[in-house]
Amino acid sequence: MKMKIKLEYIWMDGNQPESNLRSKTKIHTIDGDAPFYLEKLKPEELPMWSFDGSSTGQAKGNNSDCILKPVRVIKDPQRPNACLVLCEVLQGNKTPHHTNTRSLIEDSLDTEELWFGFEQEYVIMKNGKPLGFPEDGYAEPQGDYYCGVGGNVISGRKIAEEHLDVCLLAGLNITGINAEVMLGQWEYQLLGKGAKRSSDDLWLSRFLLKRITEFHGVDVSFHPKPVKGDWNGSGMHCNFSNKKMRENGDNEIFEAICNLFYLNHEEHINVYGADNEQRLTGKHETQHIGQFTYGVSDRGASIRIPLSTVENGWKGHLEDRRPSANGDPYKITNRIMESLSNCDEFMEVNNIGDEPVKTISE
């Protein structure tokens, strides 16, 4: 029995300084029962497809075809008999397009022993302002909105809850949501294993969120400073750990990682999202973009060492608080992975017991 299913091919475009999501639907004919088939669908079983790269900032009109290569498939919970198909963008000769940041991740370094937990902040916008802000002027100052309850301090809960349910139905490992410090600002947490896999899922979760807002007549902003002035920006704190961090119970490992991240601070900042200097000001629970600090339970530091990691005998993870909400997770996880890969060598050639340098000049 032949059946038709809907495949939503999703990719990142050539928009600068940060890519936008694009998608289009392909009708695919299968043999057999659609629900059973969709549960077992693999990306390598799906055909490559093409799109007009001249309309997405990825090609010129006289040589416009770009290729979509499926790399991750999940159930589409919002459409019957459908899947979401995340794709890499290739050139016509099947080599990675220069906008294909997923291809930068080295398979030799990527492993499921690397865990990444994203804290994706976003702001629901309507008519150019955060949801809940008055048409003229600003909302009441921050203070009551974070994890608040009630119509006087919360806007957009229906959208956040719908996104939570849709992600769970899609099989994404979303681990929680909460209202954030600014009115109309929310956060969800997503855990994944491996740089590519966790980053794939983050892009897919963003796609679902943006598609949901279409139905509610609002937009979602991932800009790191959506409202200027005395308002929190939006980040995407990246929690990370490898097997050694989770199992060894040695504070020197965490000290070495923090020192190594200090030495690579500029390299990390360069891939942690555009306009991040507007958010990393040293205020609103951030460290200044030109400085690097770390500390236990310090939300004003570049790297926060969670109290739970210390109380668990120095077994656990670190939280990099520098990435912006609009950051490319492929670039972020790749940079963290590269720094972690040099940790053993760094510990051998440095006296980790010395007092660490915690600040760099602008």
Give the secondary structure arrangement, pairings included:
Blueprint: E1 2-12, E2 21-31, H1 34-39, E3 49-52, E4 65-75, E5 82-90, E6 115-126, E7 129-130, H2 157-170, E8 174-179, E9 185-193, H3 195-215, E10 219-221, E11 236-241, H4 243-247, H5 251-263, H6 265-269, E12 294-296, E13 303-305, H7 307-311, E14 318-320, H8 329-341, H9 343-349
Parallel strand pairs: 1-5, 12-13
Antiparallel strand pairs: 1-2, 3-4, 4-5, 6-7, 6-9, 6-10, 6-11, 8-9, 11-14, 13-14
Task: Identify the notable features of this structure and list them briefly.
about 350 residues; single chain; five-stranded mixed sheet; alpha+beta
What order do the helices and strands follow?
EEHEEEEEHEEHEEHHHEEHEHH
Intertermini distance: 66 Å
Low-confidence stretches: 353-362
Average pLDDT works out at: 93
Count up the helices: 9
Silhouette: globular
Summing up helix and strand content along with how strands pair, one would put the structural category as alpha+beta
Using only CA atoms, what is the Rg?
21 Å
Strand content: 25-35%
The helix content is 10-25%
> How many beta-strand runs?
14
Main pleated-sheet profile: 9 strands, mixed
Describe the structure.
This protein is of the alpha+beta class. The protein has nine helices and 14 strands. It has helices spanning 34-39, 157-170, 195-215, 243-247, 251-263, 265-269, 307-311, 329-341, 343-349; strands at 2-12, 21-31, 49-52, 65-75, 82-90, 115-126, 129-130, 174-179, 185-193, 219-221, 236-241, 294-296, 303-305, 318-320. The strands form two sheets. Strands 6, 7, 8, 9, 10, 11, 12, 13 and 14 form a nine-stranded mixed β-sheet that branches. Helix 2 (157-170) packs across helix 3 (195-215) and helix 3 packs antiparallel against helix 8 (329-341). The longest helix has 21 residues, at 195-215. The radius of gyration is 21 Å and the shape is globular. The termini are far apart. 41% of the residues are buried. Residues 353-362 have low confidence and may be disordered.
